[in-house]
Specification:
The complex is a heterodimer. By secondary structure, chain A is an all-alpha fold. Chain A contains eight helices and no strands. Helices cover about 80% and strands about 0% of the residues of chain A. The model of chain B has no long low-confidence stretch (mean pLDDT about 90). Classes of the chains: A mainly alpha, B mainly alpha.
C-alpha cells in the first residue's frame, strides 16, 4: 500500500494525475470525434455519390485498420505534415507537436468513425413523417434540424454513443506508446522503477474499471433524461 | 510518395501478416471455448457461478486489452511460484502471453454474444422439443446450440474483426506482427504515410475477406 502513498515516497499522486490525463484525453478525443461525425454524417446521408464515397472510405478505413497503426501514423507523420505546411508559409524551424494533441487527434479520428455510424443509424431510424411535418409547419431549415430532428437523434444515439465512449476511453491506453503520461504510461514508469509490474498494471486495470463503471452510471442518467416522454 | 519503398516493403509486411493471422486464429479458437463455457455458466441458476461468469466478462470488457497483455507478460513473471512450475515454459514466451491475453479477452466478448443468443431463443422452441419427448441434453445440443450459433453470427463477425485489430497490440511485447514490422519500417525510413498505406491496405483486405465470409455463412444458415 505504501507504493500508492501520495507525495515523494509513493506513486499515488502521479497515478491520480495520470487518471485525470486519461479523462482529459478521452473527452477531447470524443469532442474531436463529434466534430468529424458532424462533417461525415451529412456526407453519408447525402445523395451525391462522390460525397458518399468519401464518407464511406473514412469509416471503412478507420474501422478496418488497427488503432495502433493509426496512432503510429500520427505520431511519426504528424510533425512532418505540420512542418511541411509551415514551410509553405516560409517557416523552416523544427516544430514539435505536443503528445496530447497528437494523441487526442488520433483517437478522435477513430472515435469519429464510430460516432458517424451511430448518428447515421439514428437519423435513418427517424420516421420520414417527422421531416415532412417539420417542413409543413413552415419552420426554417435551421429550426427544422435543431428543434425537431436533433433532439430525436440524440435520444436514439445515446445508448450507442455510450459504447463509443467506452471504446474511446480504452483506446487512450494506446497513446502511451507516444510518451504521453496517462494511466498506462505512468504504470509503466512506476513498474519499471519499483520492479513491481504485477501490482501497478493490476492497479491500472482497476482504475480503468472504475472509469468505465462511473461513466456508465453517468450515461444511464443522461439516457433517462433524454427519453422523457417515451 | 516513395513508390519504391511501398513495393519493397510489401513482401515483408505480407509475411508479417501471416503472423497476425496465426495470432488471430489461435486466440479465436481458444476464445470460442472460453466463450462457450462462460456463456453456459452465465445461464446457470446458481448465483455464485452466475456472478463469477459475469465478473469475468465485466473485468475483461471494462479494461483495455493493452493492460491485460502487460499484466500477463510483465506481471505474471514476477510471481516466484509460477516460475518454478511448467507454466513458465509458456509464460516466458511473448507469443503465448499475447495469445492468452487475446483468448481471455475475446472469450469475454464471445460469452456475452452467445449468452444473449441463448436468451433470445423462444421458449416455445424448447417446449416443442420437450413435448416431443426429446431429452433435455439433446434439446440443448441439437436445438439450442445450432439456433444460438446462427443468432450470434453477425455479432461474432464484428468480434473477429475487432480481434484482428486487437492483435496489433502484440507488437508492444516484441512480436513482429504486421503492425510491429510496419512500425519498424516507419521508424527506420521515416516514411509513415507510405507504410501506413501498404500495411493498412493489407489489414483492410483481411477485414474484407472476414466480412464476406461471415456474410456467406449467414446466408447459408439463414432460417428462411
Amino acid at each position: 500500500m505504501e507504493l500508492l502513498a501520495f507525495g515523494d515516497s509513493g506513486w499515488g499522486d502521479e497515478l491520480f494525475y495520470a487518471t485525470l490525463m486519461t479523462i482529459a484525453v478521452s473527452i477531447t478525443a470524443m469532442i474531436i470525434g463529434f466534430c468529424f461525425a458532424a462533417i461525415f454524417t451529412p456526407l453519408k446521408l447525402s445523395k451525391n455519390r462522390l460525397l458518399n464515397f468519401i464518407a464511406n472510405s473514412y469509416t471503412t478505413v478507420i474501422r478496418g485498420v488497427p488503432e495502433l497503426l493509426v496512432i503510429y501514423l500520427f505520431f511519426f507523420g504528424g510533425t512532418g505534415a505540420v512542418m511541411y505546411v509551415a514551410s509553405i508559409f516560409g517557416y523552416n524551424e523544427y516544430i514539435e507537436i505536443n503528445a496530447f494533441i497528437t494523441g487526442a487527434f488520433a483517437i478522435g479520428i477513430i472515435s469519429g468513425a464510430y460516432s458517424t455510424e451511430v448518428f447515421r443509424g439514428a437519423v435513418q431510424s427517424i420516421d420520414k413523417g417527422q421531416f415532412e411535418a417539420a417542413k409543413v409547419l413552415g419552420l426554417s431549415k435551421f429550426a427544422q434540424f435543431f428543434k425537431i430532428i436533433l433532439p430525436q437523434v440524440l435520444r436514439l444515439a445515446i445508448p450507442n454513443l455510450s459504447n463509443v465512449w467506452q471504446i474511446t476511453l480504452k483506446d487512450t491506453s494506446l497513446i502511451s506508446v507516444t510518451g504521453l503520461v496517462e494511466i498506462m504510461r505512468q504504470s509503466y514508469i512506476a513498474a519499471g522503477s519499483t520492479r513491481d509490474p504485477l501490482f501497478f498494471y493490476s492497479f491500472a486495470a482497476v482504475l480503468y474499471l472504475l472509469l468505465t463503471y462511473l461513466s456508465m452510471k453517468l450515461i444511464n442518467r443522461l439516457e433517462i433524461k433524454y427519453s422523457k416522454g417515451y | 510518395m516513395d513508390l519504391e519503398l511501398m513495393i519493397g516493403s510489401f513482401p515483408r509486411l505480407l509475411s508479417a501478416a501471416v503472423i497476425t493471422l496465426k495470432l488471430l486464429s489461435v486466440s479465436l479458437i481458444i476464445g470460442l471455448f472460453i466463450g462457450f463455457l462462460f456463456a453456459i455458466l452465465r445461464l446457470n441458476k446458481n448465483i455464485f457461478v452466475n456472478r463469477f461468469a459475469y465478473g469475468y466478462s465485466y473485468v475483461f470488457r471494462g479494461t483495455p486489452l493493452l493492460v491485460q497483455i502487460f499484466i500477463i507478460y510483465f506481471g505474471l513473471g514476477q510471481i516466484e511460484y509460477l516460475r518454478s512450475t511448467f507454466l513458465w515454459v509458456i509464460l516466458k514466451e511473448p507469443y503465448w502471453c499475447a495469445i492468452i491475453a487475446f483468448a481471455l479477452n475475446t472469450g469475454a466478448y464471445t460469452s456475452e454474444i452467445l449468452r444473449s443468443a441463448f436468451q433470445t431463443i423462444k421458449p416455445g422452441v424448447i417446449e416443442a422439443g420437450k413435448s416431443l419427448g426429446i431429452s433435455s441434453k439433446i434439446i440443448f445440443y441439437k436445438i439450442q446450440i445450432p439456433i444460438a450459433i446462427r443468432q450470434s453470427l453477425p455479432a461474432y463477425g464484428n468480434e473477429i474483426i475487432l480481434m484482428m485489430k486487437g492483435t496489433s497490440l502484440a507488437s508492444t511485447v516484441t512480436i513482429m506482427d504486421l503492425t510491429g514490422v510496419a512500425k519498424y519500417i516507419i521508424s527506420t525510413t521515416f516514411k509513415p504515410i507510405e507504410v501506413f498505406i501498404v500495411a493498412g491496405g493489407i489489414y483492410l483486405f483481411m477485414t474484407f475477406i472476414i466480412h464476406n465470409l461471415i456474410k456467406f455463412l449467414e446466408k447459408k444458415y439463414s432460417f428462411n
